[in-house]
């Protein structure tokens, strides 16, 4: 199997055994400490992550005593002194402590105490696709504000490891389900993220991708209408297709091939936007639309197949870096914490028309490959493969509207974000062994 093959695999070795063996692995233990020390700032007994909790590399399960031990690995004094419970009273005390806090896991190696809001201030917020890469970072932010978070995810691309740390928190609920099925519950806000976003994944079952964006969005709008909730749709830069205008502003109508391999996603999101406005105008639903440009960061699935995870994983293993086409196509990359801040600002602001959220720092794919190769001190060769069908030639957001309406702009440079992402994947590789990233063409996410 070559890295360019449409099939792919991740060899899981040490880490799955870890959970089962219930023993600490030395590199893993080191990983936790690096993460905790590198990411957290302790204030009193609360550990505030530098950019939420960023590390979610693997499947693992933990015993209660392991939770206790992990708590000793945080920077917080309170946790530093905690140890395995010896008596019933100690166990009760520790259980109470963890009941109001997150539980440290490899996904989020710092324990975090969530603020106690009054019931009037505390909102019930649903995130569809909340176990995914972006959704789980958003969940962290909302939990850290003290809200109640309900995640609805079908785990097609989402991973439980991304949200494990909140599972026993009283403000957190997980519903394993699909947005294509109607759902009845009480919520104040809905962040509707559910939909595979990586081209190989959304092309795997195009009919399902269309249903997710259409029936799924209809169901979420129906819910918003019934309970009077505000709803935010994560749309995409892909609605501009292969743009003939550069950079792209929100008033550009786009250049989409309605019959191409990407159209299930592009057209699905376009119709989802249309539905949002139909419900706004006909039913007075309070809507928000974010058009998200290429986003990267820790918790991207190693087999996501998008350019950032592929190039980083290939470089770290000194394997060929696969460029599709000549590498002259451009993309503009934003770090995940900036996106999460933008989504939050949009939901909490008053602006109801579509807004681009992206970082205008633009790279050709070839430049991007060289940048990652240099940052990882890799010996990888650059390998050119066939260009993929309908791959947009240029993409860069005009974010003047987001600056004006949301007072938002990205704070993390691409290089800073890449450094964090490289460290993340370095640790993933330490734990999992070899990874062969997903190549071009439709494919199912592999665990
Ligand atoms: O990351 C994102 O946020 C966006 O990713 C994808 O859009 P795309 O720009 O095609 O993302 P990638 O698959 O990461 O591709 C970026 C460029 O790198 C190239 N690429 C990708 C992977 C690879 O191994 N080699 C390579 O040259 C692609 O051909 C493309 O030109 C999704 O379709 C968007 O919905 C999503 O918003």
UniProtKB/TrEMBL annotation:
Species for this entry: Cylindrotheca closterium
Biological processes annotated in GO: D-xylose metabolic process
InterPro entries: NAD(P)-bd_dom, NAD(P)-bd_dom_sf, UXS-like
Names of the cofactor(s): NAD(+)
The protein's name in its UniProt record: UDP-glucuronate decarboxylase
Compartments in which it is found: Cytoplasm; Golgi apparatus, Golgi stack membrane
Catalysis performed (reactions): UDP-alpha-D-glucuronate + H(+) = UDP-alpha-D-xylose + CO2
Recorded family membership: Belongs to the NAD(P)-dependent epimerase/dehydratase family. UDP-glucuronic acid decarboxylase subfamily.
Pathway given in the UniProt record: Nucleotide-sugar biosynthesis; UDP-alpha-D-xylose biosynthesis; UDP-alpha-D-xylose from UDP-alpha-D-glucuronate: step 1/1
PANTHER family, alphabetized: UDP-GLUCURONIC ACID DECARBOXYLASE 1, UDP-GLUCURONIC ACID DECARBOXYLASE-RELATED
EC assignment: 4.1.1.35
GO CC terms in record: Golgi cisterna membrane
Transmembrane segments: 31-52
Pfam families for the chain: GDP_Man_Dehyd
Record keywords, A-Z: Cytoplasm, Decarboxylase, Golgi apparatus, Lyase, Membrane, NAD, Signal-anchor, Transmembrane, Transmembrane helix
């Amino acid at each position: 199997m070559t890295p360019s093959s449409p099939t792919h695999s991740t060899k899981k070795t040490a880490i799955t055994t870890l959970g089962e063996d219930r023993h600490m692995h030395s590199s893993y233990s080191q990983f936790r400490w690096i993460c905790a020390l590198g990411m957290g700032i302790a204030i009193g007994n609360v550990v505030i992550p530098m950019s939420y909790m960023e590390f979610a590399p693997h499947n693992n399960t933990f015993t209660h005593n392991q939770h206790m031990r992990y708590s000793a690995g945080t920077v917080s004094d309170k946790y530093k002194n905690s140890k395995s419970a010896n008596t019933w009273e100690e166990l009760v005390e520790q259980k109470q402590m963890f009941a109001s806090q997150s539980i440290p896991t490899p996904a989020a190696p710092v324990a975090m105490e969530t603020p106690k809001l009054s019931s009037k201030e505390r909102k019930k917020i649903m995130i569809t696709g909340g176990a995914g890469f972006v959704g789980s970072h958003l969940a962290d932010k909302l939990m850290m504000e003290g809200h109640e978070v309900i995640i609805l995810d079908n785990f097609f691309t989402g991973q439980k490891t991304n949200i494990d740390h909140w599972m026993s928190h009283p403000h957190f609920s997980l519903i394993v389900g699909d947005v294509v099925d109607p759902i009845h519950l009480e919520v104040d806000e809905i962040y509707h993220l559910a939909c595979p976003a990586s081209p190989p994944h959304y092309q795997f079952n195009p009919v399902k991708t269309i249903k997710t964006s259409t029936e799924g969005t209809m169901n979420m709008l129906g819910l918003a209408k019934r309970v009077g909730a505000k709803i935010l749709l994560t749309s995409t830069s892909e609605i501009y297709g292969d743009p003939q205008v550069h950079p792209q502003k929100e008033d550009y109508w786009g250049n989409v091939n309605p019959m191409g391999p990407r159209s299930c996603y592009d057209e699905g999101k376009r119709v989802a936007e249309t539905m949002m406005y139909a419900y706004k105008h006909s039913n007075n639903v309070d809507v928000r639309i974010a058009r998200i440009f290429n986003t990267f960061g820790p918790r991207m699935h190693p087999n996501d197949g998008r350019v950032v995870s592929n190039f980083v994983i290939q470089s770290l293993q000194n394997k060929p870096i696969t460029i599709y086409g000549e590498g002259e196509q451009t993309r503009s990359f934003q770090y995940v914490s900036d996106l999460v801040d933008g989504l939050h600002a949009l939901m909490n602001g008053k602006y109801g028309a579509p807004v681009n959220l992206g970082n205008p720092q633009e790279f050709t794919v070839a430049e991007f490959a060289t940048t990652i190769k240099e940052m990882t001190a890799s010996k990888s060769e650059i390998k050119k493969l066939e260009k993929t069908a309908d791959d947009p030639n240029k993409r860069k957001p005009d974010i003047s509207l987001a600056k004006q309406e949301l007072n938002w702009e990205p704070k993390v440079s691409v290089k800073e974000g890449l450094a964090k992402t490289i460290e993340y994947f370095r640790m993933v590789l330490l734990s999992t062994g070899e990874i062969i990233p997903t190549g071009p063409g439709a494919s199912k996410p592999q665990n």
